[in-house]
Amino acid sequence: MTATGQDARNQAAHRSASASAALDPAALFTPKLVTVLREGYGLAALRADAVAGLTVAIVALPLSMAIAIASGVTPAQGLYTAIVGGFLVSALGGSRFQIGGPAGAFIVLVAATVMQHGVDGLILATFLSGLILVGVGALRLGTYIKFIPWPVTVGFTAGIAVIILASQVKDLLGLTLDGPEPGPLLEKLPVLWRALPGLDPAAALLAAGTIAVILGLKRWRPHWPGLLIAIVLASLVTWAAGLPVATIGSRFGGIPGGLPVPALPDLSLEKILAVLPAAVSFALLGAIESLLSAVVADGMSGRRHRSNCELVGQGVANMGSALFGGFCVTGTIARTATNVRAGAIGPVAGMLHALFLLAFMLLAAPLASYIPLASLAGLLAVVAWNMAERHAIAVLLRTSRGDALVFAVTFLLTIFRDLTEAIVTGFALGSVLFIHRMSQIAGVRRLPLVSEDRADTSADGGLPYDGAAADPQIIVYRITGVFFFGAASSIGSVLESISDTHRALVVDFSAVPFLDSTGANTVAGLVDKASRRGVAVVLCGLEESLRRPLEAQGVQAPKVTFAADVEAALAMLQGEPSAQEVRR
């Protein structure tokens, strides 16, 4: 057997195995950790995963605390989320490389939930969102969540970036506000402006220095852990110079030296109903964010994740995080990409990243008290800048007015209204735009009885439709594109132009890849009208998938005749004086 033949057989076997796995429910929900261990997991793989896990932990350590503080909770809760949630995401998820933990995209939702329902309400909403995610995954709805249009994801991500940046201005500049900081952007900006004369130069310099170190290392030493180095340097400067700036210790009293005892949140019906909208929002955003992160990992590694298994794993991780006092867990794109680039082999890297974070809490928790909040604000400012996909926004604004509108509406609603409302509205607009575009592609045209595309290929040099060309009573239409509800009206109006002077109508479906019930109903109406006028109808080029919706609408013999193609339909009609004979 040749090498080429063997490769072909191997590829066919792989496709067959993939298809079998897709049909097997157990395979669909088998965590990638089990898959990796079945493949054989040795010391070399463990060493590679340990290095990758440590690399990711170094990135996740300051980021988890910064996201927690920006969300209105303690830095310890950010670490609980990264440790418990991150471990469970990797152990039970459907991606080899996914890193779970607190994400910047959740800052807006978490802060609003804390403000409205308190920290206990946040923990309950997180627990409920986990139950929802498990249900969504168990019902195999993960595939549909990935249908969120790209302009929507770019829009809400950019909107979140703006809100994150605005939320960090107070700590970036060391401002002292007269009262609590408002949540909505339009209310926040005047309050920050009035407090601007009280700017703290030391805090502002620390924040600027943190940003400069992160950006400088990213450019000149991209493999160095820039986030951690910047935070360590800022902490050393604060301690050595005795700078009078707010730190984790001064505001939160430091972080504990271990995980708390797990406990169920308050599951009273009244509290559940109160936080349920927030739980749904957490689940929706978490599903989108985690599946996007898994897709990014697939693109970088050449692997393929299991969407529904990933959602189930994310759901269990959120419930586990809530039991330990943490908040929302999701797949994080930046940390997942770092994991892949660091050479991870499988989910063990993510599990070790969580254990490394736990070791920090156990051994070095007192050191976190010296971290200045201004430096964490600078870190989040860089995160917000990176979240706003400037190149993607420029592409959207240049290429399509429709996509630009979807982006703009999602972006503005995220900033000025609500993230869930922004996603739902953006998705609806994107769907309408898609329907409009598909309806523009679909069409119908009348064909001449002389084939233009096959005239030069006939065996005798003649024209294949010449025999019927002399019969003006036969009319032939070809439908192209998807025949669905968005195109049914325009196509139907053309087809219904038949008159009593025609004895036969041929409709060619060979260029129709899909026919929905509305399109089938349109054809059924056409057939009934033709039958009343004594006009025979021949449908040709129909695949089995197209015949089923037509037959369900009653489009079948003796009302119509089916033919393989236009030539066969015309040959069938030649010499037949009446529609009744065609039907017989």
TrEMBL record:
Listed SUPFAM superfamilies: SpoIIaa-like (SSF52091)
Gene3D superfamilies on file: STAS domain
Membrane topology of this protein: Multi-pass membrane protein
Record-level GO BP terms: transmembrane transport
InterPro entries, alphabetized: SLC26A/SulP_dom, SLC26A/SulP_fam, STAS_dom, STAS_dom_sf
Transmembrane segments: 50-70, 76-92, 122-141, 148-169, 191-215, 227-252, 272-297, 344-364, 370-388, 395-416
Alphabetical list of CDD domains matching this protein: STAS_SulP_like_sulfate_transporter (cd07042)
Keywords (A to Z) from UniProt: Membrane, Transmembrane, Transmembrane helix
Compartment(s) of residence: Membrane
STAS domain boundaries: 472-573
One of the record's GO cellular component terms: membrane
Stated name of the protein: Sulfate permease, SulP family
